[in-house]
UniProtKB/TrEMBL annotation:
Protein name: Uncharacterized protein
Originating organism: marine sediment metagenome
GO biological process, one term: DNA restriction-modification system
Keywords associated with the record: Restriction system
Domain called Type I restriction enzyme HindI endonuclease subunit-like C-terminal: residue spans: 154-422
Listed InterPro entries: HsdR_RecA-like_helicase_dom_2, P-loop_NTPase, T1RH-like_C, Type-I_R_enzyme_R_subunit
Restriction endonuclease type I HsdR second RecA-like helicase domain boundaries: 37-97
């Protein structure tokens, strides 16, 4: 919605007095951070005559619609209301309804160019169009061999395969950002129309690469809201939302979502990076299990690189690895271990053969004892309290010595135990 901010005089119509007369506090509230400068507030337009041209600091202001002539300092002050930097805002826009070009040139002539550097940059639109053409050509060159008239799934997969190397994604991020900056600045001028189709295509590929490779540098949040909305609308209109959406290997509809991804190669790529994301997110909470999962994944990928597996075999192997997440909980139940206990069991399991041989039951019992010590000693903010951790170390060391744990590995193993405890019980206060 909009509101009018004007000074009311005694000779103004009564209707204006009733509708627009406000106290200074009321005006400050409307134009302050609580309302107009709050991006989520519905107030989007301020209608003014001469008010707010000086002393009004609102970096969120994006556009000024100018319909009266101004000169010199007054004109520069008006334009300056829009040129403050703000997150996702690189510049301000002035929509000129009265033609102040000459007045602006005269106003700028008053100042030295050095004084205006970084404050005002008035370039001919032809210069920006030239940069737009250049940035478009550079951004498209990565995909010049892709035939875009094929099936959407195949076209998208070809482009995402090109962006698989991290250094290529880094290059693409810069090229797209430059292209997007020009498009954002010039839209909705008709001069952008010849580039719009390619821009939406590249935005779609950028979003797909971000989701597939879990690369947040490619997030559209780093672009303006106008660009983000344009790309998301195109993705929806093109009907490729499901193709671009990342899959979750623990989701109940995992296999159903995987079927949408297209070719066997495309499916394998989606599963691989979903597994990598899961490992990266959870390895600190169960290092033994997820390190073993990581080793299996790397062995499978390496075999594929050496062409010892075809695409169908690769996908089958990746899906099998993805199912280990479910099997982890089943194995824990079979051993009568809670999820927390199973993570510590994995660490102790690295020494199981030399400590207990085939006696897995003994490994489970010692694991339970170690976890019990940790949980019984936990208090509020225990991670910050060295005396509590020292007591944990001492009690754990007593247990390990009793079972004949190798003395040369004892300190290292206890550090592993405490590091895992910090990862799993960081927010625990000992009340459970």
């Amino acid at each position: 919605w909009s509101t009018v901010i004007i000074s009311i005089n005694n000779d103004d119509p009564q209707e204006w007095k009733e509708k627009y007369r406000r106290t200074a506090n009321e005006e400050n509230h409307l134009t302050g951070k609580e309302v107009f400068q709050n991006p989520s507030d519905p107030l989007k337009f301020l209608i003014v005559c001469d008010k707010l041209l000086t002393g009004f600091d609102a970096p969120v202001l994006q556009v000024m619609y100018l319909d009266q002539r101004m000169k010199e300092h007054t004109l520069l002050q008006a334009i300056a209301r829009t040129n403050r930097p703000y997150p996702r805002k690189k510049y301000g826009l002035v929509v000129d309804y009265v033609g102040v070009g000459r007045e602006l040139a005269q106003a700028l002539a008053i100042f030295d160019k050095e004084d205006l550097h970084g404050i005002f940059s008035v370039d001919d639109i032809k210069n920006e169009i030239a940069f737009l053409k250049e940035s478009h050509e550079k951004a498209m060159i990565l995909f010049k061999k892709v035939k875009r008239d094929g099936k959407p799934t195949d076209v998208i997969q070809q482009c995402l395969e090109i962006l698989k190397p991290e250094d290529v994604r880094s290059e693409f991020e810069v090229l797209f950002r430059n292209f997007a900056k020009s498009m954002d600045m010039l839209m909705p001028d008709p001069c952008v129309d010849p580039f719009l189709k390619d821009f939406k295509f590249l935005g779609m590929i950028r979003e797909g690469a971000r989701n597939l490779y879990r690369d947040d540098r490619l997030s559209l949040v780093n672009c303006s809201k106008k660009v983000e909305n344009l790309i998301h609308a195109h993705i929806k209109d093109a009907g490729v939302e499901e193709i671009l959406t990342p899959i979750n290997i623990t989701a109940p509809d995992f296999e159903e979502k995987l079927e949408i991804k297209g070719s066997t190669k495309a499916k394998a790529s989606h599963v691989e990076h979903a597994i990598r994301e899961t490992i990266s997110a959870k390895i600190g909470e169960d290092p033994a299990f997820y390190e073993s999962l990581k080793d299996r994944l790397e062995s499978l990928i390496e075999a594929d690189r050496k062409r010892r597996k075809d695409e169908a075999e690769l996908l089958k192997g990746l899906v099998e690895i993805s199912k280990q997440e479910e099997r982890r909980d089943l194995i824990a139940k079979e051993k009568d271990l809670l999820p927390d206990e199973f993570a510590f069991y994995g660490l102790l399991g690295n020494y199981k053969d030399e400590l207990f041989g085939e006696n897995d039951e003994k490994t489970c019992l010692v694991t339970k004892d170690i976890v019990s010590i940790i949980k019984n000693k936990m208090v509020i903010d225990w991670i910050e309290k060295e005396d509590i951790q020292k007591e944990m170390r001492r009690n754990i060391k007593d247990i390990l010595r009793k079972i004949g744990f190798p003395s040369d590995k004892l300190e290292f193993f206890i550090r592993e135990i405490l590091e895992l405890a910090r990862a799993r019980f960081r927010d625990d206060n000992g009340t459970n």
